[in-house]
Amino acid sequence: MRWISLTASAMTLLLALGGCSAGLPELVPRARPDIRSDEAGLWLVAAKSEAALQQAPTAISDPGLNRYVRGIACKVAGPYCPDIRVYLVREPGLDARMLPNGALQIGSGLLLRLRDEAQLAAVIGHELGHYVERHSFDKAWRQRVGSDIRAWLGVLAQGLAGGGGDAADALMPVRDGAFSSSQEIAADSIGLRQMTAAGYAPAAVVDFWHASVAELGERQSSIALRLLARHPAPGSRLDRLRTAVAAVAEPHAVRGYVRYQAALAPFRAAFLADEVRLRLPTETLRLFERLRRQQGLDATLAFYWGEVYRLRGWKDDRQLALKFYGEASRLPNAPVALDRSIGLVRRSESDWLAARAAFRRYLAAAPDAADAAMIRAYLAEMPEA
Amino acid sequence: MRCRLACLVLWAVIGAGCAQDTARLAEGLRRTDAAPRIALMPMDILLSRVSAGGFSQPVADWMASADYNLTQALRQAAVERGLVLRSVDPAPAAAPGLRQAQLLQDAVQDAILLHHFGDARDRLPSKFGSLRWSLGPTARQLRDAVSADYALFVRLRDSYSSAGRRVLAVVSMVLVGMPLSGGQQVGIATLVDLRTGQVVWARALDRSTGDLRDPGPALETARLLLKDLPQ
Question: What distance in Å separates the CA atoms of residue A52 and residue A57, rounded to the nearest whole number?
Answer without folding.
Answer: 10
